[in-house]
Amino acid sequence: MTVRLPHAFVGALCVGFALANVGRVGIAPVLGAAGVLGAAGIAVTDPRLRWALLGSAVVAVAWTWGSFRLARLDHSVLAPRIGSAEQAVVEVEEPPRAGSFDQRMKVVVLRWGILRTHEPALLELPLGRAPPQGARLRLIGVLRAPPGPSNGFDEAKWLRRQGIHAVLRGETWRVVGRRGGISGAGDRAGRRLAGDVAPGLRGARRDVIEAIVLGRSSGMDQGLLADFRASGLYHCLAVDGLKVAAVGGGIAAVVLLAGLGSYVAQIAALFTVAGYAIAVGLHPSVVRAALAAGLGSLAWLAARERDRWQALLVGAALLLGWNPYNLLDAGFQLSFAAVSAIFVVTPRVVRALEGYPVPRELAQLVGVSTACGLATAPVTWFQFHQISLVTVPANVIAVPVVVEVLGLALLTAVVAPLSPSLAAAMAQLNGWGAWFVAVCARVFGGLPGAQITSPRAAAALGLGAVGAAAYAWQRGERARAEAGLPPDGDGSAEDRGGAAAPAGTDR
Predict the structure, then answer these.
(1) How far are the Cα atoms of 5, 13, 189, 371 from residue 343, in angstroms, in the given order?
(2) Domain ranges, residue 360
(3) Radius of gyration of the chain measured on its C-alpha atoms
(4) Same structural domain for residues 61 and 102?
(5) Angle CA(344)–CA(299)–CA(315) in degrees, nearest 5?
(6) Are residues 95 and 153 located together in one domain of the fold?
(7) What is the per-residue pLDDT for 133?
């Protein structure tokens, strides 16, 4: 990757936002220092020193903003009222997750007694009837503190990073309205998708299809979820860049086949991706992928060179600028580590497979699976204390079917209002794809030694991977030198902004 000034300045924003997690700074002194650095950068004549000073000023400004955002997220009007009971009005932000004894969901507390507020909280309700996402509820609730560390997981810290400082326990509730605006439109679209993507299906097949399309795995069997984790296929149950790219690319292909031209195709893809992201929920991986797709389409419409690294950095900057705690979130780390590895590692794996009887599409799929497996292994170890050893073969076999299941499910949702019987037949066909994905998870996840949970084994695997990567990199650079090619990263085709990532690779 060739580092350009836009890369450097957006990267400086990311560094500044991230530094807020290390320490908070005061607004006045740091902004003053940023002003001095910026003025000095404009005054000096040495280009390198000028950009270094201006970059430092950007870091300082971003650090100040990140400190302000964290202070806002850490502020709570509900925390001092823990232990009290009041009548509350809340809005349901996400689908309920059923546990062994209750169901839990993220909500926004609009009223607590006579207090008007707009603060997120975790709502606990008895098992049974579940409120729909986007519903406005009235209930009598009791505030309690989030639980502390237990079995290596600190739920209070995890919730605090989302701006949640209190758990609201309720027994009975009633719907008194629904939220409006863009979020309300997303709720309606999500409910329609959930109802139309798998009409007539029941059980695990419907659960897998809904998870693939909407990223909602809370209703799935816990044993099957464990197999998805052990096999390295758990990302298939989340909405990631692969699915966002498939949705945008699919609608663009339909528009092109209709003969409406590239401009209409790009605009249609832009609006479709935005609508899909709102419908499934603006999670970090969804926001990153939607931003990358949107920036790519806008760059094409403006006839500018597309730069995937810049799109990745812009996505990171926006997510960190909104919530610097995202840096510590496992989903954020997995998403950006995987995509960065796809950009760097996948082309090298594809080149390594050249000369072998391997189709290019299969080579790209192997490269993507290898890149994601290598990049996410450290994250999964430090976050979950496990590493899947079967992720590459499992993804090579299952991911193409996942893409087909997604496409057919969305087409089923389009057909359902027009022809329910045809949609039901399509759903039955799609159920076999969902069954195949579930079988892959069970088979690979159930293999002996499918995942590592021992620290010694993880350390040995890490050292072996580093050594193998260093050897492969050195060998590849030597081969390129002997062929008279420039070193990787010096303007090679894979690193130029105008080159597109392999189809279906953006997680």
Answers:
(1) 19, 21, 33, 9
(2) 340-389+454-498
(3) 24
(4) no
(5) 55
(6) yes
(7) 85
